[in-house]
Amino acid sequence: MDLHLANPNLKNPEFYVPGLPADWVTAHYGIPADEVAKLGSAENPFGPSPKAVASITAELDNVHMYSPWTAEPLRETLAAKYGYTPENFVCGSGETEVIALIIRAFAEPGGQVLMTRPCFPIYHLFAEAEGRQPVYIDTPTMTCEVDAYIDAIGPDTRIVFVTNPHSPSGTWLEEADVRRIVEAAPHALVALDEAYVHYSDTPGYIHLAAEYDNLIVLRTFSKAFGLAGLRLGFGVAHPNLIPPLLAVKPTWNVGRLQIAGGIAALADDEHVDRTITAILEGKAHATARFAELDRFRLVPGTRSNFMLIEILDHDTDSTLVFNGLLERGVIVKDGSVSFRGLEKRYLRSDINLPHRMDHLVDALADLP
């Protein structure tokens, strides 16, 4: 049956390209999964928060009951932790769902959504699927050029995405620059994506949501808390910005297990601190090891749990290197597939434990 698509933007959709699982490498190359360096998804090397796992397990007997439709117990816990009220928060099935809600609620069809290029692909994929217009500012230095970004904010701009640390490079914007962008767009919603902020060695800028009525700060439980498979994220903003997001979200988008896990994870500072310490040690180790290579270099300045690798050897490209690493049991991201604007000269790799960083560097050195 040839059904008519009411939304023509979905006729030939583009999909997000996630990092490959370890069992894919096992199936194709026979490398045991525990010997694969899985460096394409920015996951927590220590797994989930133990406190979250215990809380989720204790909640299993209640899964026959609906969750509070606004995830109110989690909103209350977030408010207590970050110094807001529950009415400042919206929770989603992953931060990606909150991004989708923002695009639907704050940009009309044809409305302009400003972002860097490259950027987290969900920004433009969701905008295009909803018939909104992505507007790109190219970032050849792999960081947001603030003056160019501000110059691109026009009367038709509806949403401005700022990713800090930047994805895919991990570079960092200081608070004064973030403030400049927010203040340059009083007629638009600025979405400050702090998915990787735990690794920045700062508390981030979540406090700015109390100062501006055109700002929403986004965070996730997928990274430092180790709950990527649970799917949980949130946004904090002026209370006037929250009702439109609640109106367009699926009614029970956050289940009882997500709420229980999120509340417990917020109290698991030991797990978060252990993770951050390990990633910072892994970054120092990787930086030292990359100095041994002459065909690849790290883009400097990452403040995240991933790093961008530039390919200096013009006799190869990102796809060839990506496939060569898979054969050697290393999973990264091919920049030309995963990010618009990177073309064939970059890979993105997680920062992980030192032995995983050794596996990556040794595999790069072994490529013909």
**How many structural domains can be distinguished in the coordinates?**
2
Largest sheet features = 7 strands, mixed
Radius of gyration, in Å, reads 21 Å
Q: What overall geometry do the principal axes of the alpha carbons give?
A: globular
Helix content: 25-40%
Instruction: Please write the string of helix (H) and strand (E) elements.
Output: HEHHEHEHEHEHEEEHHHEEHEEHEH
- CATH class designation of the largest domain: Alpha Beta
- CATH homology superfamily name of the largest domain: Type I PLP-dependent aspartate aminotransferase-like (Major domain)
Helix segment tally: 13
Record the strand order, biggest sheet: 2-8-7-6-5-3-4
What's the average pLDDT?
96
Query: Roughly what fraction of the amino acids lie in strands?
Result: 15-25%
Poorly predicted sequence stretches spanning 5 or more consecutive residues: none
Number of strands: 13
Distance between the termini: 50 Å
Structure description:
The protein is an alpha/beta fold. It folds into two domains: 18-47 and 270-366, Alpha-Beta Complex (Aspartate Aminotransferase, domain 1); 50-268, Type I PLP-dependent aspartate aminotransferase-like (Major domain) (Aspartate Aminotransferase, domain 2, 3-Layer(aba) Sandwich). The protein has 13 helices and 13 strands. The strands form three sheets. A seven-stranded mixed β-sheet has the order 2-8-7-6-5-3-4, with helices on both faces. The chain has a four-stranded antiparallel β-sheet with strand order 9-10-13-12. Strand 9 (296-298) and strand 10 form a beta hairpin. The protein is globular. The model has no long low-confidence stretch (mean pLDDT 96).
